[in-house]
Amino acid sequence: MYKLLLAGVASVLLAGCSDQSWRTTDIDDIMPPLDFTLIDGEGETVHGEDYQGKATLVYFGYTFCPDVCPITLARLGDTIRRLDDETRDNIQVLFISVDPSRDTPEVVKRYADAFGPEFVGLTGNQADIDAVTNRYRIAYEYGEANEDGDYLVTHSSAVFAFDREGQAQFLVRDSHPVSDAEADIKRLASQGG
After folding, report:
1. Residues of 59-78 as b/e, b for ≥16 C-beta within 10 angstroms?
2. What is the spatial distance between Cα 173 and Cα 189, in angstroms, rounded to a whole number?
3. Beta-bridge partner residues of 160
4. Beta partners for residue 121, in sequence order
5. Which tens digits make up the pLDDT trace of 12-43?
6. Of the residues 4, 38, 52, 131, which has the fewest C-beta atoms closer than 10 A?
7. DSSP character string of 138-175
8. At 47, which helix (H) or strand (E)?
9. What architecture is the 23-190 domain classified under in CATH?
10. Taking the complete model, does pTM exceed 0.90, yes or no?
């Protein structure tokens, strides 16, 4: 009886050791699966399920962003380039514009392409953008236009991570150490296949 109890305790402890949680913010129980209808850089209508099969990082921003967007996307690009070829082939980054009036399909394609081949630019009409931002609780707001018609857009800077089946896994915030984000992205891209 004692040996059976000891074996049971050992198996529970070992199971607990293998059950790793994400170093960043775990969102698998609170965010819905990847789902949207948007327009890609070729002007084609695409859906969330079109991007299943690879680990997917999603970032909401806009191409005229002076600081947060290019910094975040450059960090993601650097992280992806540090992965081995096989792992890198299993990851993609979707850049979803929250500024559809300026971010046409051609503009988001050119912008996303600048960060690496894993990056895909997406846009859409205002209703489609609102549908996907509401789904993932992304707030954004347009600032006042200046005399040239330029304006800033205040928006979230978080990166959402989805597994190959489109299930939400973790969220990377600016406050997370880069090493934690890198570890989680590598682990996510290495899973399954």
Report:
1. bbbbbbbeebbeebbebbbe
2. 18
3. 58, 171
4. 95
5. 333 333 345 899 999 999 999 999 999 999 99
6. 4
7. --EEE----TTS---EEE---EEEE-TTS-EEEEE-TT
8. strand 45-47
9. 3-Layer(aba) Sandwich (3.40)
10. no
